[in-house]
């Protein structure tokens, strides 16, 4: 039987080992550097799914990398929830009115409508800038939503309408057109024509038609996504049938318009959503992840294109031939289709969109046909990004979204105040004069063709670029054992449980071994001490023992190979 004193010695040693290990973990501090909460650029997966605005706040505002904090916040949230994060605030200084035009109503039921707003529909919304009168220019805006969803008062279209009214200084009218399958290409386009005819004759107040009589105020049209496609169809229809309106449109603007109903532009492949998982990890053991491509439409290329295509066919009422019709599917309009009385055009589109080419191709053909065109492509932006201008709850604006809205205001105001675009290009041949002899000659119609005023825009809040390795989060001096436990609690149970179990087993085995070794050796040492030292067979069959010399020194021997004094 072992002496009781020896067992107490082993238990004490095990307790000391456990306490020492806990202290080491509690006092451990990672290397200093950038704050640990930073998840710059696309490496922002830990921001995803958080709903509180403060959880998107990044501490690296003065040392930004690759993307701005607002963009990184939006990426993280939208990847997890593609329906989240659109603007919530109504622009100050504008007022809202609604109107039910005679005969312009329809019912959204479970049988003919998939939108969440059921019941009687068709009421128009008007957003009036401060000081609006009957002479104030007017804008007809057609909302997006795949022609199947949305209304003037849902999906942040009220917020967008109010912002457009403020920056453009125009009365903005949003129509509640019949959604697919209650409506289709023909009925939705006709709804837009009727609304524009009404807007040209009636203002935001009663009596505007009598006050102006035959005098017409400037008219603009705009739209986003599917609504942008319908708006372009409207522009092309009026170019071929100008008698429908009786006046030329002053201008048209588009946010990420969907114009290719064949859904086969190259960006369906080159801008396909991709989640890149690195082999490394952050210092808090979260995975190193990057997102690229179209974060709103995350299916692989065939599934994404097929979904768009099916949606387009439903919109066209099952008529496959209309998928390449230049009016219904403006991507297939040729430069000659844009000749005539088309107004100046403004496009704002994200560089990461699946339908980037829907804007670029149309802008190029429109300019080649003689239109004045401004095309702005925003780096890293997703579909209809101007509707996220508030920054996805971060508390600071998304620069690209706010800038595109302001550029729209500049475009509209400059036209109705100065009578021309804020800027445009002049193209000359290699020897001056028309470019008939240049490389453009084969695409060029003398004294008619133009090129778009094109800009590829980067967020100026990103001050410099850096290596990916520098994006790893670092810990500050206040990072403690409690912080480690908090971070560990966020990990998957399949990671946490094996890690904790392995650590506990390791600590237990180490304590057991050291305690047993000490207990055995201590007991033998006491015995040998009385006889002047000696050897014993130690733990695990080794030769372990204590010796006491005449000089009063202890020495530990293991298999006769190591001596420690």
From TrEMBL:
Pfam families given in the database record: Abhydrolase_3
Domain of life, source organism: Eukaryota
Keywords: Hydrolase, Membrane, Signal, Transmembrane, Transmembrane helix
Spans through the membrane: 494-518
InterPro entries named among the record's database cross-references: AB_hydrolase_3, AB_hydrolase_fold, GDXG_lipolytic_enzyme
Residues making up the signal peptide according to the UniProt record: 1-28
Domain Alpha/beta hydrolase fold-3, first and last residues per copy: 140-386
Coiled-coil stretches noted in the UniProt entry, renumbered to this chain: none
UniProt protein name: Alpha/beta hydrolase fold-3 domain-containing protein
């Amino acid at each position: 039987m072992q002496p009781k004193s020896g067992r107490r010695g082993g238990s004490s040693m095990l307790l000391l080992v456990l306490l020492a290990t806990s202290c080491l973990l509690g006092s451990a501090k990672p290397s200093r550097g950038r704050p640990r909460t930073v998840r710059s650029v696309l490496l922002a997966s830990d921001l995803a799914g958080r709903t509180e605005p403060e959880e998107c706040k990044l501490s690296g505002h003065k040392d930004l990398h690759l993307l701005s904090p607002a963009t990184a916040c939006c990426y993280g949230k939208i990847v997890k929830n593609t329906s989240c994060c659109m603007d919530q605030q109504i622009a100050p200084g504008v007022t809202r009115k609604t109107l039910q035009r005679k005969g312009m109503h329809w019912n959204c039921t479970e049988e003919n409508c998939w939108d969440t707003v059921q019941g009687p529909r068709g009421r128009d919304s008007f957003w009036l800038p401060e000081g609006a009168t009957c002479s104030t220019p007017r804008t007809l805006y057609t909302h997006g939503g795949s022609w199947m969803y949305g209304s003037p008062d849902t999906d942040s279209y009220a917020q967008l309408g109010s912002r457009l009214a403020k920056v453009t200084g125009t009365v903005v009218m949003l129509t509640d057109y019949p959604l697919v399958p209650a409506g289709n290409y023909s009925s939705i386009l006709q709804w837009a024509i009727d609304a524009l005819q009404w807007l040209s004759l009636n203002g935001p107040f009663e009596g505007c038609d009598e006050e102006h009589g035959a005098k017409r105020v400037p008219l603009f049209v705009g739209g986003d996504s599917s609504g942008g496609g319908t708006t372009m169809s409207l522009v092309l229809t009026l170019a071929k049938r100008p008698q429908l309106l009786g006046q030329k449109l002053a201008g048209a603007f588009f946010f990420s318009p969907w114009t290719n109903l064949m859904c086969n532009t190259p960006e369906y492949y080159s801008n396909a959503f991709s989640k890149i998982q690195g082999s490394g990890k952050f210092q808090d053991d979260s995975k190193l992840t990057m997102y690229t491509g179209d974060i709103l439409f995350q299916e692989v290329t065939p599934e994404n294109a097929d979904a768009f295509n099916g949606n387009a066919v439903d919109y066209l009422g099952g008529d496959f031939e209309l998928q390449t019709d230049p009016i219904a599917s403006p991507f297939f309009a040729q430069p000659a289709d844009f000749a005539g009385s088309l107004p100046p055009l403004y496009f704002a589109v994200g560089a990461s969109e699946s339908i980037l080419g829907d804007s670029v191709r149309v802008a190029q053909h429109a300019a080649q046909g003689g239109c004045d065109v401004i095309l702005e492509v925003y780096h890293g932006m997703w579909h209809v990004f101007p509707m996220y201008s508030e920054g996805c709850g971060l508390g600071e604006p998304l620069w690209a979204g706010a800038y595109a809205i302001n550029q729209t205001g500049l475009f509209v105001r400059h036209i109705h105040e100065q009578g021309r675009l804020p800027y445009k290009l002049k193209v000359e041949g290699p020897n001056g004069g028309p470019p008939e002899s240049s490389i453009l000659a084969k695409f060029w119609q003398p004294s008619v063709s133009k090129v778009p005023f094109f800009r590829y825009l980067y967020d100026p809040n990103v001050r410099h670029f850096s290596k990916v390795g520098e994006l790893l989060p670092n810990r500050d001096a206040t990072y403690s054992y409690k912080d480690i436990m908090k971070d560990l609690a966020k990990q998957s149970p399949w990671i946490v449980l094996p890690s904790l179990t392995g650590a506990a087993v390791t600590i237990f085995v180490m304590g057991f071994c050291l305690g047993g070794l000490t207990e055995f050796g201590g007991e033998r040492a006491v015995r040998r001490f009385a006889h002047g030292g000696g050897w014993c067979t130690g733990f695990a069959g080794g030769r372990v023992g204590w010796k006491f010399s005449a000089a009063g020194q202890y020495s530990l021997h293991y298999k006769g190979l190591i001596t420690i004094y």
